[in-house]
Amino acid sequence: MASSSTTRPTVVLTGATSGIGEHTAHLLATEGARLIIHGPQPPRGQTSLLDRLGQMGAHDVHYLQADFDRLAAADTLAGHIADLTDRVDVLINNAGRPGPPTRQLTGDGNERTLQTNYLAPVLLTARLTPLLRTAHGRVVHVSSATHLTASLDVDDLTLHRTPYSPAGAYSRSKLALVAHARWLTDQAPEPRFDAVSVHPGVIRTPLLHAMFPIEGDPPPRGAHHVVQAALATGAWNGQYLDEDTPARPNPLALDAHWRNRLMRHTFRLLPHDPSHAP
Ligand SMILES: NC(=O)c1ccc[n+]([C@@H]2O[C@H](COP(=O)([O-])OP(=O)(O)OC[C@H]3O[C@@H](n4cnc5c(N)ncnc54)[C@H](OP(=O)(O)O)[C@@H]3O)[C@@H](O)[C@H]2O)c1
To answer: 243-253, pLDDT tens digit by residue?
Structure first.
């Protein structure tokens, strides 16, 4: 498990209520991890998931609710995580949504897909940075191979001028996520933590079927790739993984100038300086 000095690493996993995230939680439970899992649904509906994870071997499991349609919810989530632990060995930003049929703005004024898939994970990661640094931990951004053909105008992150399509909004959010993982490895102050992004595979989930007429592989396959990315201690830092193999990302993500511009515009969309401790 990533850089943990303990035998029971603490893993924060977003989007654990369905699909790849739920199966990732299963695999991590069998590893005996201490799990802080997240979903947008109220905790009362998660009892059976929590019971199952305990039975599978999770050392300790907590469920926290946050709907990333509100950036304040991601901020509050970070605070609740900090109430539960003083270290995060692995943060897996897995929660994601397909692009809605037409362009929608959240109450924060952001394009909805970008906010859930990118802005909220960036905010959460920034707020958990002290806990990741304490653990010399690892951030895993669950991205998508759709990012490979995306383009993203950093001056138009709300897609005001850019022609909108659901898959286009989705792939742009995933391109931004790949670039952010890379930017983190450039920027992270000592003590450092690792960051990787991973395409988990083409996986049979509600998200896939909302956008693409493809059946996909079973969710445990995607979960296996996410857990591999999380557990590869010291390996693959800064890399984009296609399933279990380092691969060349979209060239924009390799362009340091573009990444820095993206991050400048990104921070303008976040509610306040997210780097202060929760
Ligand atoms: N499936 C694929 O082929 C594929 C390929 C590449 C990348 N991915 C990525 O894999 C990740 C997991 O997706 P999946 O395919 O497993 O889809 P999924 O089954 O639909 O799971 C998505 C998870 O994100 C949560 N979520 C959705 N909207 C949210 C919001 N507004 N706030 C907080 N959480 C929210 C969902 O919660 P509820 O279900 O409880 O609403 C669920 O737990 C995503 O980042 C996705 O982009 C998937």
So the answer is: 999 999 999 99
